[in-house]
User: Which sequence fits this backbone?
């Protein structure tokens, strides 16, 4: 499994493991476990952007491969993976976020991908652009909100 795919399933899996739900041992779905643990504050949207994804955070144009969110109105995390054209998509994504008023933080770019962070209250955004062996190039956005 590639890094990007592991990242895409990390949020629901970590929640299930962190809370030690006994339901995990009885064959319940991960989505069911996470919904039970978070009292319904989760959206494992699958191949779509979660309905409550912040409109202030622009996404690259492309096929949505994965979308999820977890949390409440005070603290929330969204994860969206979008298919992009190549490693250079990181530059365009950075320009998009800067154009939307986000401040650039750390930034790293190599031939195999890019990683960058951005902030604009109340959001923090981490973007990783990498090659997925099955999907081609993808951009994974992890957006956190703290009020």
Assistant:
């Amino acid at each position: 499994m590639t890094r990007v795919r592991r990242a895409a399933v990390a949020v629901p899996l970590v929640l299930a493991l962190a809370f030690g739900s006994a339901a995990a041992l009885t064959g319940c779905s991960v989505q069911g476990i996470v919904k039970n643990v978070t009292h319904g504050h989760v959206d494992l949207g699958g191949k779509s952007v979660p309905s409550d994804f912040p409109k202030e955070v622009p996404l690259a144009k492309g096929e949505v491969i994965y979308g999820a969110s977890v949390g409440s109105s005070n603290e929330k995390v969204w994860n969206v993976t979008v298919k992009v054209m190549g490693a250079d998509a990181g530059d365009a994504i950075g320009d998009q976020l800067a154009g939307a008023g986000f401040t650039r933080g750390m930034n790293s770019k190599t031939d195999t991908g890019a990683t960058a962070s951005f902030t604009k209250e109340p959001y923090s955004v981490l973007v990783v652009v990498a090659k997925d062996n099955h999907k081609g190039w993808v951009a994974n956005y992890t957006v956190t909100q703290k009020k």
